[in-house]
């Protein structure tokens, strides 16, 4: 994603509007270097017009030696021969006028193409190989899936993960964006029909940035889009995101619909959320049996007991006995959690010392342990983690779906 170096916040906004979504603004060369040291391989640096020419030229020269594959694009109010000459000598890739949005966008597009070419076809923005997909699921509504997803993604990002993407796969009623006080201009809906042309540039253009190292793929704004999001689209988007991000956290809706099943089929780690009530536990039990049947995330499932201190005649021990698996994380009921959500500042960032925040941080640490998920062969020989799995629904999911009709 491009980074803009510019002192005037209004000009940052103006330039960002000419660039792919997700561009990040900083006000100095020092801040840019600090950002790049955390975020690795951005493909373009756009130097705004208020950075005076001498400082801009110094920046180009330092980038030429430290990050030669990142293109520096100088945006100037006036472009004369002196500017062009100095820019050329310093290694700037392009010089464009700030009042020419088409030229700015084209220069950034060329930078992205160059990056791809220099990185052997890899997409820009930190492709470092396979990340981890973590899907948060529960067959019951209102148990805390979104709260868990959002806080987990933030805990991963705050804990030093270089890049985290939070995907809202509650396609009809997703509320990740509102929970994080984001107002996305683009959503997954815009990828509908584009199954055959998905690459990171396309997916990236749909992301909304939340703070430094967390990006969000928001759910459609209207519920009717859900039925048009195909399993193939989900599979391809998730694989593309997995190549670019260290962690992809997926929030889901409370049902085994086609899209959720596909997400689960792609997942490396499955976080299952339960609460202390019999209908929820009964449904979670059935869901676990279904995951067993589909051989999904065997050995990589983590049980979050939310509202774990509710006095309702059930306790953690009984939950473990009913579900036949240990509880990984217990989150107590707390008005602070709901209040933080309502204020648009989830508890992990608004109160990192809170007991619940510590639990989410511990879950993030557990999930970021450097272990490869163990591939478990399915009955038909299909592994839950086969890198070369077909892009359409896996045979076991399709078979299972057919048998339910
Ligand atoms: N541990 C908790 N203590 C207090 N309130 C909580 C807790 N966990 C979640 N909540 C609140 O419960 C409500 C439902 O939570 P959330 O939206 O995360 O559930 P969900 O499973 O995603 O629901 P849905 O199935 O509708 O998507 C929210 O208002 C949230 O703030
Ligand atoms: Mg939800």
Describe the overall structure.
The protein is α/β, with parallel strands linked by helices and 405 residues long. The protein folds into 2 domains: 3-118, 3-Layer(aba) Sandwich (Rossmann fold); 132-404, P-loop containing nucleotide triphosphate hydrolases (Rossmann fold, 3-Layer(aba) Sandwich), CATH 3.40.50.300. The protein has 16 helices and 13 strands. The protein has helices at residues 9-16, 29-39, 53-66, 81-90, 101-118, 145-158, 176-179, 200-204, 231-244, 258-266, 278-294, 316-323, 335-342, 347-350, 355-367, 395-404; strands at residues 3-5, 24-26, 44-47, 71-76, 94-97, 132-137, 164-168, 207-210, 214-217, 247-251, 269-274, 301-306, 327-331. The strands form 2 sheets. An 8-stranded mixed β-sheet has the order 8-9-7-10-6-11-12-13, with helices on both faces. A hairpin with a 3-residue loop joins strand 8 (207-210) and strand 9 (214-217). Helix 9 packs parallel to helix 10. It is elongated. The two termini are 44 Å apart. The model is unreliable at 123-128 and 372-392 (pLDDT under 50). The protein binds adenosine-5'-triphosphate and magnesium ion. Adenosine-5'-triphosphate binds next to helix 6 and helix 13.
Supply the key terms.
405 residues; alpha/beta; Rossmann fold; 2 domains; 8-stranded mixed beta sheet; 41% helix; elongated; binds adenosine-5'-triphosphate; binds magnesium ion
The CATH superfamily label of the largest domain reads P-loop containing nucleotide triphosphate hydrolases
**Biggest sheet, open or closed, and with what strands and sense?**
8 strands, mixed
- Return the CATH topology of the largest domain: Rossmann fold
Task: State the shape.
Answer: elongated
Radius of gyration: 23 Å
């Amino acid at each position: 994603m491009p980074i803009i170096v510019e002192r005037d916040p209004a000009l940052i906004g103006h330039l960002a509007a000419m660039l792919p979504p997700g561009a990040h603004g900083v006000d100095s060369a020092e801040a840019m270097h600090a950002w790049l040291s955390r975020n690795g391989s951005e493909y373009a640096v756009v130097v705004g017009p208020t950075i005076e020419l001498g400082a801009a030229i110094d920046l180009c020269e330092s980038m030429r030696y430290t990050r030669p594959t990142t293109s520096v694009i100088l945006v100037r109010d006036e472009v004369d021969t002196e500017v062009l000459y100095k820019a050329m000598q310093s290694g700037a890739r392009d010089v464009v006028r700030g009042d020419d949005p088409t030229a700015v966008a084209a220069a950034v597009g060329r930078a992205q193409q160059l990056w791809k070419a220099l990185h052997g076809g890899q997409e820009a923005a930190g492709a470092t190989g396979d990340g981890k997909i973590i899907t948060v699921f529960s067959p019951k509504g209102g148990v805390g899936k979104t709260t868990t997803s959002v806080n987990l993604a933030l805990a991963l990002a705050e804990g030093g993960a270089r890049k985290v993407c939070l995907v809202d796969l509650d396609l009809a009623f997703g509320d990740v964006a509102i929970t994080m006080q984001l107002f996305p201009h683009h959503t997954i809906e815009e990828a509908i029909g584009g199954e055959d042309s998905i690459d990171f540039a396309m997916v990236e253009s749909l992301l909304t940035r939340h703070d430094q190292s967390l990006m969000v793929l928001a759910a459609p704004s209207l519920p009717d889009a859900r039925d048009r999001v195909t399993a193939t689209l989900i599979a391809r988007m998730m694989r593309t995101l997995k190549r670019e991000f260290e962690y992809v956290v997926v929030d889901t809706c409370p049902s085994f619909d086609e899209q959720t099943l596909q997400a689960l089929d792609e997942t490396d780690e499955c976080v299952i959320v339960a609460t202390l009530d019999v209908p929820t536990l009964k449904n979670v039990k059935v869901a676990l049996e279904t995951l067993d049947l589909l051989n999904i995330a065997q050995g990589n499932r983590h049980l979050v007991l939310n509202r774990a201190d509710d006095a309702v005649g059930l306790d953690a021990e009984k939950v473990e006995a009913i579900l036949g698996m240990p509880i990984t994380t217990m989150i107590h009921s707390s008005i602070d959690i709901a209040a933080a959500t309502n204020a648009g500042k989830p508890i992990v960032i608004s109160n990192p010392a809170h007991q619940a925040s510590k639990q989410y941080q511990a879950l993030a640490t557990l999930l970021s342990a450097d272990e490869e998920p163990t591939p478990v062969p399915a009955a038909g020989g299909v592994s839950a983690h086969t890198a070369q799995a077909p892009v359409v629904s896996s045979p076991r999911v399709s078979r299972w779906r057919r048998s339910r009709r």
